Amino acid sequence: MWKSLFVCGFLAVTASAQIAHSQIEIANLREDVRGLMQRVGELILRVEQLERENSELRQRVSHAGQAYASVADLEAAVAELNRTIRSASAAAKNEALQQVSVQLEALAKQTNVALESLAKTQNTRPVASPGFSENYPKEGVSYTVQKGDSIAVIARKTGAKPQDIINANKISDPSRIVVGQTLFIPGGK
Fold first, then answer.
1. What pLDDT sits at residue 131?
2. Domain spans in the chain, listed from the N-terminal domain onward
3. pLDDT tens per residue, range 103-127
4. Class in CATH terms, 140-186
């Protein structure tokens, strides 16, 4: 008897556990179904929204179809635009050339007036001699100017006086001697 009681109790516990487990599964299934229903509702709303948008786009396309230009129309418009641009560019170039021409003529007149004025003052001004002295040794050596040379450097190299080199070669601007230029060095070695 204990055994049958034990078996009955075991069966009752097992049945109770299975019922509880089934109730949990049913609750989970109900929750899953509720979630699916909610998602289906959202999808239905989205489909309705897309259908409205699609309808609006169809209406726009039917109205806009009349506003499209053909390729030939576009090519003709581009060609006309290019002609207009070339014409405007040519006109702008011609205008700029005319303005430059007028400015050059005015500048040429001003330059001629300035040159004439300068020529008149040069004719009235006495000619000044550079003032080179002939008082330097008449014997000496030739020297070819090298890179980095100045009158002072050449004078040190050759043992001559800088003023004698200037006078003998009639150098009006001692800072303007040129590499390769040959100078007479009075009294130089």
1. 79
2. 10-65, 69-123, 140-186
3. 988 888 888 888 888 877 766 555 5
4. alpha beta
CB 140 within 8 A of CB 172: no
- Farthest-apart Cα atoms in the chain, separation: 160
State the residue for tokens 């006309």. 80
Distance (Å, whole) CA 179 – CA 148: 8
As given in the structure block, the two tokens for residue 68 are: 């499209």
Complete DSSP assignment for the chain: -HHHHHHHHHHHHHHHHHHHHHHHHHHHHHHHHHHHHHHHHHHHHHHHHHHHHHHHHHHHHHHHTTTPPPHHHHHHHHHHHHHHHHHHHHHHHHHHHHHHHHHHHHHHHHHHHHHHHHHHHHHHSPPPP------S-S-EEEEE--TT--HHHHHHHHT--HHHHHHHHT-S-GGG--TT-EEEEET--
How sure is the predictor about 73, in pLDDT bands with cuts at 50, 70 and 90? confident
